[in-house]
Structures are given as structure tokens and as C-alpha cells.
Amino acid sequence: MTTDHADAIAAAQAVLDAFMAAFNARDIDAWQKTFNFPSVRLASNTLTIIDADYHKPEMFGSGALTEWDHSAWERRKVIHAGSDKVHIDTRFSRFRADGSVIGGFDSIYVITCEDGHWGVKARSSYAP
Questions:
Q1: Alpha carbon distance 22, 32 (integer Å)
Q2: Beta-bridge partners for 42
Q3: Domain definitions of the chain by residue range
Q4: φ, ψ at 92 (rounded to 5°)
Q5: Could you say which DSSP state residue 99 is in?
């Protein structure tokens, strides 16, 4: 891990905090602000290019999120950091409303600073 980019690391971790808070609140507008578009998601062996109009409220009640109530970070370990990009090895879990675990998923998030805005540029996970 690169330790001489403390400001970039703090900014990237703040993005992940905001990302999870907005996702759990199902707040599309706030969640959108945690991205740098276009953004890339690699999951379920599928590469998805995410633009600003990609996320919709109905996504929270379908597919892999049918039983989902909220998620939480289990691990967030910086593996590389520079002045405008941070790679973070993460694990998050998805939970039902009763607190039971749906599953835990390892992932890599790439957080970038573009035009002064820190946001999720790419993520690769084992989540469906």
C-alpha cells in the first residue's frame, strides 16, 4: 500500500462511505454523486458501462436485490494509491430486513479524482 497519499486515501474512503449510505437509503441522486461517469462494473462475468442515467429506483426490488434491505462494508483495504486514483480491496455483505445475511462479496473499487470530484470509476465484484 502506498502511504504517502493520505489525502487521496481519505477522499476515496469518504466516497465509499457516501456510496454505501446513499445505496442503503435508496437515494439515487445522492448515489449518483459518488460516481465518476462513465463508470464500469464487472460482476457475474458481465461488464457494464454505467452512465449518469443508468440507476433507477426500481432496481432496488428486483434481481439480486429482491430480498435485500441493506449492505455494509466488512473490509476496505487500500492496495494502491496515487494523487488522483486509489484502488481498494473490499468485502461487503448484503442483509435482509431481519438482519440475516444474504451473502458476502469480495470486490475491488477504483476511486478516481476527475475535475476535482472523487468518485467510483470502476468496480469488480463477485456479487450477482
A1: 9
A2: 47, 124
A3: 6-125
A4: -130, 155
A5: S
Q: Among 1.20.120.550, 3.10.450.50, 3.30.365.10, 3.40.50.970, what is the CATH number of 6-125?
A: 3.10.450.50
**Range in 28-42, 60-74, 83-97 with the lowest mean pLDDT:** 60-74
**Residue 81 CA, distance from chain mean position:** 17
Measured distance CA(128)–CA(121) in Å, rounded = 19
User: Does the pLDDT value for residue 1 go beyond 70?
Assistant: no
pLDDT recorded at residue 91: 98
Task: Return the DSSP state at 10.
Answer: H
Predicted confidence (pLDDT) per residue in 73-105, tens digit = 999 999 999 999 999 999 999 999 999 999 999
Show Cβ contacts of residue 42 under 8 Å, excluding neighbours closer than 6 positions.
Answer: 48, 122, 123, 124, 125
C-alpha 58/C-alpha 115 separation (Å) is 31
Per DSSP, 75 falls in state: E
For residue range 4-19, list pLDDT tens digits in order.
Answer: 899 999 999 999 999 9
